[in-house]
Design brief:
Layout lengths: L4 E4 L7 E4 L2 E4 L2 E4 L4 H6 L7 E8 L3 E7 L7 E7 L1 E8 L10 E7 L5 E4 L3 E7 L3 E8 L8 E3 L39
Antiparallel strand pairs: 1-2, 2-10, 3-4, 5-12, 6-11, 6-13, 7-10, 7-12, 8-9, 8-11
Length: 186
């Protein structure tokens, strides 16, 4: 397997867009979405859990993280539909602390977004429905779970929402603190 192409995002160079090699013809395409040896060669950790979520248009999930000792790195991809996927740097002492980066992930493009430990992660569903899969480097541990307010004006994420449009949120996602209130564990 030819190694996937890895491109750091300009706004957050530690977050990467990972593009696997895609074989296309008149029938569609074929891609090796995951091959442990190839991703290990890229420096990815061993992943211990795969998650799959389905969301309807306008649903915003996030911004979530797990604190040490259960901190998670994530490798995220849309397998159906489109989402605007975001990472926010929460690493105290980082020159990028509080900065965000976002990309559109589309089920017709089998790219992944690499989100290392120390970042909050979330996405907004842009299509009628979207299926998102993501690999994580540690098991889900609710006692280490945290989050950041999706609409924190100091982070100022430019979510692709129409004027006056409010996303559909879980009750939990309406309660996360702003960055200035967050005691970052990273």
């Amino acid at each position: 397997m030819k190694l996937p192409t890895v491109t750091p995002l300009e706004a957050l160079p530690d977050v990467h867009l990972v593009r696997p090699r895609v074989h296309r013809d008149e029938r569609g395409f074929f891609v090796e979405r995951w091959k442990a040896s190839a991703f290990a060669e890229l420096g990815m950790p061993a992943f211990v859990q795969d998650n799959h979520s389905r969301s309807t248009r306008g649903t915003l999930r996030g911004l979530h993280f797990q604190a040490p000792p259960g901190a998670q790195a994530k490798l995220v991809s849309a397998v159906r539909g489109r989402v605007f996927d975001v990472a926010v740097d929460l690493r105290r002492g980082s020159a990028m602390y509080g900065r965000w980066a976002g990309v559109t992930l589309d089920g017709d493009d089998p790219s992944w977004l690499w989100v290392p430990e120390g970042f909050a992660h979330g996405f907004l569903t842009l299509s009628d429905e979207a299926d998102v899969i993501y690999k994580v480097s540690d098991h889900y541990a609710p006692e280490t779970e945290g989050g950041l307010a999706w609409d924190d004006p100091d982070v100022a994420i430019e979510w692709p929402l129409g004027p006056g449009q409010v996303p559909t949120l879980s009750d939990r996602d309406t309660t996360w603190p702003r960055l200035e209130e967050l005691r970052s564990p990273f």
